[in-house]
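ok so for the tutorial part 2 we go from a plain amino acid sequence to predicted structure tokens. step 1 is just haveing the sequence, like this:
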Amino acid sequence: MANQDASVSDDIESHNSDIVTVETVNNEIADLLEQSHTITHEYIVGDVSDCRTANGHLHFDLVSGDASIHCVIFSVQHQQLTATPDENMHVAVQGDISYYEARGSCSIIVTNVVHMGESEYTQVYAENKRLLAADGLLADSQKQSLPELPETVGLVTSANSDARIDAVTAICNRYPGVDINIHDSTVQGAGAIQELISGISTLDSDTTVDVIIITRGGGADNTLRVFNETPLCRVIANTETPVAVGIGHEDDQTLAGEVADHRLMTPTHAGEVVPERAQLNSELTQLSHDLPTAYHTALSDKLTTTATALNTAYQSAISQQLQQLETALDHAASRHFETQLTETQNRLHTAYQTLEQRKQHEQELEQTAEEIRTEVTAQTEAEMVTQRRRYMFVIVLLILIIIGLVVFNLV
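step 2 — the prediction. this is what the tokens look like for a chain of 411 residues:
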């Protein structure tokens, strides 16, 4: 390789090529921009993105579609602005184009800002969120719990990125030895969504993967927009494997993070999906120490609980039996008293009927006696009349006899 480089160097020198440094090229570009009279637009329109303050100056990106340009508002210009740029704003900026030779980048030195409403992407974001919410993909009830002790972690992120290093380091620091299945994917740009979906689907179909992490580092807001696309969000929401998403910085909010089962603040927080092994070992040691005491305590509590339950069951059974016997006795007594009452009522009824019969018989006897008495009285009276007649006849006869005798004697 060293010999090849030397050969190329010799070849460049032998042809007397025009050789310049990066600094020279950047200076030429700066001179070209400063001398150009073709880029003289009064206003440039776009969405405000990645708004931030540095050294008192306000920096933001002016975004339109996939294109963006950096803008700077110096601190002395703040008070003179019609509107102060903020995230989610659609603005028209006025200013001069500047080229920063040290970095080889263009910027607009803004002198005025006109607020033109809500940014186009804010509206797109709101519509995407509405669609996902309408399908129930943002509801907490749709989220899965992360496994307590995953054996294999699937990781979807860009190759050789700081996010990949931070995520792997965080996971291994918390639980060394855990398997990490990494699927490299572009995390911004035209092909990012397909690669991300492919990586997620591949890991989801792998039965050995217990949890999937999707992560990337920070960046301008417009570079994170792939994580607000509904196709990607739907794939994340519909995976059978629990998914954790850690995108950008702590303040970055993406729809992918909202539909995921768990949101990580940053790639460094990827370790949250696994337990801390040192803490597990400490807990295991403490549990081993506490196990005999816990066993005896649990056994004692169980015996006490069982004895209490048996005593309660015994008391309940005795109480139930006593109640049943008392109920049966009450029923038997009621039946006995009812039987006796019925018999007594029957006897009273029979006695009453007998008494009534006797009273009727006595009445009949009295009537018969009265009739006999009447009849006897009539007969007696008749006999007395007859006897009286007889006596009168005898008396008359005697009187006649006496008179006859008297007359006879007188004669």
